[in-house]
Amino acid sequence: RITVTFNINNSIPPSVDDDEPQEGQKPDEQEPDLTSTPNFVVEVIKDDTKQTLVLDCHYPEDEVGHEGEEESDIFTIREVSFQPTGESDWKDTNYTLNTDSLDWALYDHLMDFLADRGVDNTFADELIELSTALEHQEYIKFLEDLKSFVKCQ
């Protein structure tokens, strides 16, 4: 069984206000679309084991939105660990492997392992779309709640 969890909080990269509108370009055409790229966790659970393989993934800032380039992964695995199956809170004492120190061949096998289970670039693109829609929806609700709160005397 595969479970993917993510949190939309702090998933919109900060905007850069350095750019001035180009000549003949309307100011609102300059604004890029705000895209939510949340970190996400993939849990792989097998019925015959007492452990869950946990892969902590994220979207590197320099990889998002580079369409038309050669096929590369738009997300990376940051950390890998085993956690007890059925535990709601993960144990900080369980060994967690940071993939920065991982052999590239093993890292590629882990990415293939995820892809074989449907967690690939297509999935990652769809997650961005879902997360962006949810983030925008929550943002609008927040603004409405803020307006109601401020108006209240």
From TrEMBL:
GO cellular component terms, semicolon-separated: cell surface; extracellular region; mitochondrial matrix; nucleolus; plasma membrane
Species assigned in the record: Pedionomus torquatus
Keyword Metal-binding among UniProt keywords: no
Protein name: Complement component 1 Q subcomponent-binding protein, mitochondrial
KW Membrane (keyword) present: yes
Top-level taxonomic group: Eukaryota
Primary site of residence: membrane
UniProt similarity note: Belongs to the MAM33 family.
